[in-house]
Design a protein that fits this description.
- With about 230 residues, the protein is of the alpha/beta class.
- The chain has one domain: Rossmann fold, CATH 3.40.50.
- Helix content is about 50%, strand content about 10%.
- The chain contains eight helices and five strands, in the order βαβααβααβααβα.
- A five-stranded parallel β-sheet has the order 2-3-1-4-5, with helices on both faces.
- Helix 1 packs across helix 8.
- Bound molecules: ligand Z5A.
- Ligand Z5A binds near residues 37, 117, 177 and 214.
- Ligand Z5A binds near residues 91, 121 and 122.
């Protein structure tokens, strides 16, 4: 994935569409295992939503701020042994900064924020994947985010074998988490699904569908979430 920092909308062109939901303040999160297609979907969604007139901010975790990017380097470093609870605390330290410096201010001025991963990733990877208890993890996440919650979480549910094949084709070097075995990634996938099934603000989408099908389904869900915010 290529985003280094939270990325801003380009300046408006003279014929840019009028902002039709300038105070929508919508927070959309995209979740899924690595290689599930999140970055691909987010780029297409941001383009379409800007076409709808939204002031879109794309961001990601871990990352989104200079501190978040520094934590990301440490977090993904293959040479560094990191204990499960340290992982959870590192990503949540970065998340607290991200919420305070980027997400909350963007929502406060009515922007539409799309974030690649958020608290579900901690529950799925450090909880279901690493085996940490979920309730303490939820408490740590809550400290990091306060009252900031996604209006909609889209889960790209993609089989581990499919995601792995895609990453092989993409040819990017494996990081500290990606190199975990298939059983780990299966637990993470199951975790994401359980979290999605237990909440009305989640929508699971079959990650094996074509990019176009996933995009269409996701855009409809985002537009419905925006509609619910502004009506
Ligand atoms: N992590 C954690 O443990 N705890 C936390 O709290 C948080 C994170 C926040 C960050 O990895 C790692 O941090 C992550 C979890 C952990 N580790 N893992 N595993 P990252 O940010 O480096 O990467 P990622 O977010 O996991 O995913 P990614 O590599 O960026 O993949 P993606 O965005 O999901 O997929 P993509 O790049 O859009 O697509 C992959 C390829 O598939 C690409 O060639 C596409 O062209 C292709 N593609 C996409 N969609 C399709 C469809 N529909 N059909 C066919 N091919 C497709």
């Amino acid at each position: 994935m290529s985003m280094a920092l939270a990325s801003e909308s380009p300046p408006s062109a003279p014929d840019a569409p009028r902002l039709i939901h300038s105070n929508a303040s919508v927070f959309i999160v995209i979740e899924g295992i690595e290689g599930s297609g999140k970055s691909t979907l987010i780029a297409a969604l941001a383009h379409a939503l800007r076409g709808d007139g939204h002031d879109v901010l794309m961001t990601r975790e871990p990352g989104g701020t200079p501190l978040g990017d520094a934590v990301r380097e440490i977090f993904l470093d293959r040479a560094l042994p990191i204990a499960p609870m340290t992982e959870a605390l590192l990503v949540n330290a970065a998340r607290a900064q991200h919420v305070s410096d980027v997400i909350r201010p963007a929502l406060a001025v009515g922007r539409l924020v799309i974030c690649d991963r958020f608290t579900d990733s901690t529950l799925a990877y450090q909880g279901y994947g690493r085996g940490l208890e979920l309730e303490p993890l939820r408490a740590v996440c809550k400290i990091a985010v306060g009252d900031v919650e996604p209006n909609l979480t889209l889960l790209l549910d993609t089989p581990v074998s499919v995601a792995r094949d895609r990453l092989r084709t993409r040819g990017v070097a494996t990081d500290r988490i990606e190199r975990e075995d298939d059983a780990f990634h299966e637990r993470v996938r199951r975790g994401f699904l359980e979290l999605a099934e237990s909440s009305p603000r989640h929508r699971a989408i079959d990650g094996r569908l074509s990019e176009k099908q996933i995009f269409d389904e996701s855009l409809n869900a985002v537009r419905a979430a925006v509609g619910a915010r502004v009506s």
